[in-house]
Amino acid sequence: AAVEGFDIEDVEGAIEEAGHGPLPVLAVVGRPNVGKSTLVNRIIGRREAVVEDKPGVTRDRVTYEAEWAGRRFKVVDTGGWEQDVLGIDASVAAQAEYAIEAADAVVFVVDAKVGATDTDEAVVRLLRKAGKPVVLAANKVDGLSGESDAAYLWSLGLGEPHPVSALHGRGTGDMLDAVLEALPEAPEQTFGTAVGGPRRIALIGRPNVGKSSLLNKVAGEERVVVNEIAGTTRDPVDELIELGGVTWKFVDTAGIRKRVHLQQGADYYASLRTAAAVEKAEVAVILIDASESISVQDQRIVTMAVEAGRAIVLAFNKWDTLDEERRYYLEREIETELAQVAWAPRVNISARTGRHMEKLVPGIETALAGWETRVPTGRLNAFLGELVAAHPHPVRGGKQPRILFGTQAGTKPPRFVLFASGFIEAGYRRFIERRLREEFSFDGTPIHISVRVRE
Ligand code: GDP
Ligand code: GDP
C-alpha cells in the first residue's frame, strides 16, 4: 500500500521515529580522571570535544543524545569538573548530586586500576540515598589481565561491576545493554508520576540575574527567612508554590539557593545545575537581566532550553532600574540576540518591587498550552494544502518540490513530519514553521519539523 508514492510502512516508521516522547536521562558520575568523559564520548559515538577542552576550561554543554540498540536517551556528562574550587570530596559530591537528581539511571565509573577510594564510597552513599538504578562501570580494564581488578569492586555493594575500557571500547556494549535495562522507556520524574500533578517549572538564568530573588518573592517573605536560617541543612529540592490560585512545582530550587557557596568561579556547576533543572521541568522560565546587555551566556541558556524541547517564558528582570535609553537598546538586542525564541511569551518584571509578578502565570500557561497543542491531521493537511497552493516552493533544476501531506507525530513539544516530493530548502522550511506558528498558536514552544522525501 502507498500514499502519494510513499510506502505506508515508511510513513508509519517516520511518524513513530519523530513521535518519540521526552527521552530518559542517564548520568555518568565518578571521581576526576576515572574516564567519565572518555566513556561519554564512547556512548554518544561521536568525537565531540568532551575530553580535549580540559582542564579548567568552562564547558557549557553537558547533555548529549545517544542511541543504543535502537533506543534513544540523553547522557549527562559530569566530567567538566574543576579541581581547585571545593576540594575533591565536595566537588565530586556536588556534581554527582546534581546529575543524579536529574537522572533516571546512573553509570558510576570507578578506575579499576586504582580500586575504590574514600571519594568513591562517598558517591556510593549518595547513590544509595537517591535510590536510582545504578550500573557500575569498572573502567580502564584494557585487557584480560584487568578483569580481576574489576571483580574487587563487588565490595562497593552496587552489584556486578562491568569491566570496560572507555578508551578502546572493550566491554562497553555489554555495559550499555545493562544501561538499557536500568533506564525506563520514558523519563519517570518529569512525565511519568507527574501526570495530573502540579506543573513543573525551572527557574533558570545566568548568575545574578535574580533567580533566588524571584523565587523568594513568589514563595513569600516568611519562607525566605526560614531558608536562610536553615543554612547548611539541605533544602527540599523541589518547592510547591501557589501562584495565581494554582499550585506549581518549582524544580531544583535547592540548586538556586545553594548557588552561593558553589558558584565561586565554578561556572561549570551553573551549567550542570541548569541542565538538571531543565531536564526535570516542563516549562523553563528564563531570567534575563534587563539592565545589562544580553550576553552569550544568556543565549547558551536559551539554547539549552530550546534543545531540551521545553516550553519557554522569557522574564526580563530588574525592570525597576531601566531608563528610557536602556529600554530602547534592550528592544534592539532582543530582536537580534534572542531571535531564536521570538515566539516565547515575554514578561518584564522586577523581583525586587514585585512589578508584573501577576503576568508570570499567564505567560507560563500560554507556553504550556502551545507545548501540548495537537493539530488534528485533517486540519493540518487542509492548512498545508492551502499554503502550498498559495506559496509554492521555488522551482529547482526544472522541478518543483511539493509538500504532499503531513502529520503531527507528537507533543511536548509539538513534532511534525512532512512528506515531500523533493528536497525542501531551509528557507521554505522556516516559512512553513512560521506559518504553522501563526495558524496554530505555538507560542512559547519549540517545534520540530522533519521532512521525508519520496524516493
Ligand atoms: P574524567 O575526568 O573522569 O572525565 O576522565 P577522562 O575521560 O578525562 O579520562 C582521564 C584519563 O584517563 C585520560 O587520560 C584518558 O585517556 C584516560 N582513560 C580514560 N579511559 C581509559 C581506559 O579505558 N583505559 C585507559 N588506559 N585510560 C583511560
Ligand atoms: P541569582 O544569582 O540569579 O539567584 O540572583 P540574585 O537573586 O541573587 O540577585 C542578584 C542581585 O540582583 C542581588 O543583589 C539582588 O538584590 C539583585 N536583584 C534581583 N532582582 C532584582 C530586581 O528586580 N531589581 C533590582 N534592582 N535588583 C535585583
From TrEMBL:
- The positions making up the signal sequence are none
Which positions are annotated as binding GTP 2? 205-212, 252-256, 317-320
Keywords for the protein's UniProt record, in alphabetical order: GTP-binding, Nucleotide-binding, Repeat, Ribosome biogenesis
**Ranges of residues in domain EngA-type G:** 24-187, 199-372
Q: Can you tell me which residues bind GTP 1? A: 30-37, 77-81, 139-142
Concerning SUPFAM superfamilies, the annotation shows: P-loop containing nucleoside triphosphate hydrolases
Record's function text: GTPase that plays an essential role in the late steps of ribosome biogenesis.
Matching entries from PANTHER family are given as: GTPASE DER (PTHR43834:SF6)
Q: Which family does it belong to?
A: Belongs to the TRAFAC class TrmE-Era-EngA-EngB-Septin-like GTPase superfamily. EngA (Der) GTPase family.
**What subunit structure does UniProt give?**
Associates with the 50S ribosomal subunit.
Q: What is this protein called?
A: GTPase Der
* UniProt organism field: Streptomyces hokutonensis
Gene (UniProt): der
